[in-house]
Design goal:
This protein is α+β, with helices and mostly antiparallel strands. The mean pLDDT is about 80.
Length: about 180
């Protein structure tokens, strides 16, 4: 038989205990302070102005004072015309002796109520004056805000040291056989 050498190397063992880190975090609740945005509107309404005085005047409608003055002038004129007509007819009747028999017939026709007087508008009446005043809308926007209010919290840590142990698990050996 021959020479046999059997060799066993060294074996090291490592035992590890890890370090322990424990964090304790305490936070206080936070609060929000909110200022909402605001929109303020200033509104000026549109207007429509209608002036119908000219249109009414074109149709014979006047303010009361003007209407009464016109009626008084017309009445005065009619009274003067009636007085003139009566005076003329009286003069004609005074001359009836001049052998004019048709005077009575003519006066009777003049004074008869069968006559109808219609008055028509000669011109187109004026249209009302219409004026539009535009409205306005003005807006003022005030921005809002959000504020986050927090208080300080606490962080605590607890640690334990780790450990590493190195040991010899097996010693080196040489086994020689002959």
């Amino acid at each position: 038989m021959g020479l046999t050498i059997h060799q066993v190397g060294t074996k090291l063992g490592i035992k590890t205990n890890w370090a322990d880190l424990h964090l304790e975090i305490k936070t206080d609740p936070f609060s929000l302070q909110i200022n909402e945005p605001r929109l303020e509107l200033k509104i000026q309404d549109p207007e429509i102005k209608i002036d119908h005085r000219q249109a009414k005047a074109g149709q014979g409608w006047y303010p009361w004072l003007t209407l009464l003055n016109r009626l008084a002038q017309r009445s005065k004129q009619k009274v003067l015309e009636a007085i003139g007509q009566i005076a003329r007819q009286g003069d004609e009747l005074a001359r009836i002796e001049e052998n004019r028999p048709d005077i009575i017939v003519r006066q009777a026709l003049e004074n008869s109520p069968d006559e109808v007087v219609l008055e028509f508008l000669e011109n187109q009446p004026a249209m009302p004056k219409i004026e539009l005043i535009q409205g306005k809308i003005e807006g003022d926007l005030k921005k809002g805000q959000v504020a986050v209010l927090t208080k300080k919290g606490q962080i605590r840590n607890y640690t334990s040291n780790g450990r590493v142990e190195i040991y010899m698990a097996q010693r080196p050996q040489i086994d020689i056989q002959w």
